Amino acid sequence: MRIERAQMNPIISPIHVTPSSPEMQVVSAFNAAAVSWEGETLLMLRVAEVPRNVADDEVAVPIVAHVDGSAHVEVRRFKRNQPGLDTSDPRAVLFNGEIFLSSLSHLRLARSKDGYHFAIDTKPALFPTEPYEEYGIEDPRMTVLEGRVYINYTAVSRYGVAVALASTSDFVTYEKHGIILPPENKNVVIFPERIGGRIVMIHRPATTGLGGQQMWLAYSYDVLHWGQHTPLMGKRPGMWDSIRIGAGAVPMRTDYGWLEIYHGVNDEQGYCLGAVLLDLEDPSKILARSNLPFLIPEAEYERTGFFGNVVFTCGAVVTEVEDESVVRIYYGAADQYTCRADIDLEDIIDSLHTPAVLVRPPVNLNEVPYPTGAACPIGE
Known about the structure:
Elements: E1 3-5, E2 24-37, E3 40-51, E4 58-67, E5 70-79, E6 85-86, E7 92-95, E8 98-101, E9 104-112, E10 119-120, E11 136-145, E12 148-157, E13 160-168, E14 175-181, E15 185-190, E16 199-205, E17 214-220, E18 227-234, E19 244-247, E20 252-253, E21 258-266, E22 270-278, E23 286-289, H1 300-303, E24 311-321, E25 324-333, E26 337-344, H2 345-351
Antiparallel strand pairs: 1-26, 2-3, 3-9, 4-5, 6-7, 7-8, 9-10, 11-12, 12-13, 13-14, 15-16, 16-17, 17-18, 19-21, 20-21, 21-22, 22-23, 24-25, 25-26
């Protein structure tokens, strides 16, 4: 398979993004949702910020505090030698058993005519303002559905990791619709058209103890209320997606089925990307799946950064290049940069393997076919 990484990767770095306020500095611009909209490619970036002017002997944690009904950024400071403080994971700060995030994320719009050069808005499109967003809003996906763009994202707070929804019709004004899936859940993608009259999503609940991590389907008639949850597929011991899996880009309709690019994690390679093909009329039917990842952390900007050995997508678009359909994947590299890779659609389809080699979720959900794997409270 020929994978064409953009020569100018990373196409967006933290230095390209204006901080949301003078008191903050941008450390990551990554995990962008992507959509084709009125002749442009639009990205909804996850922008992670940390406080400026932090002393060498302290750790500063930004959160959104609520006082008298208004929200503002508040910085909590800890001494590095303080008992009970754990900063071994750069993504989190643990203090006496309580978990904070080391940065505060919001969502920022970027526009491009050519898919390479992006003009990034100077102000956030969506900022954490609600109590269930106090530790930030992360990893958006954008779905154009019936003339409106729905933006689902991860909302992080003391209450856990939940999935929230917003929408827009013009990328100027945005409406927040609140939580659509309670903790612990993330990695949601919403299909871009109704199937059998229903709206369909893929989501990934967290698991602790009984059961292995699964990607699930859910159904809705109004985008806000979801039910009929059904397990779709799980981790595969000994394979590239053995530790963790989750949906990535919004599913793309093809002549062969719904193509879903998802991430998998293993000890040797880290976060990688592969794909699964789902039936057009019944997405609970798996037609084929990657036995090997097609994008792994190889470039320096993918292997080293804020959190190394990560390629992670929240968005892709299909474009025509010299009469061939190309999947243009926008992906986060090392939890710090936004990059682009182009792969021929037919090459992805040809790389997939039929369900004979797949591990499918059991009919009896009390069975435990996979090991639970290492727990990571803030893992992607």
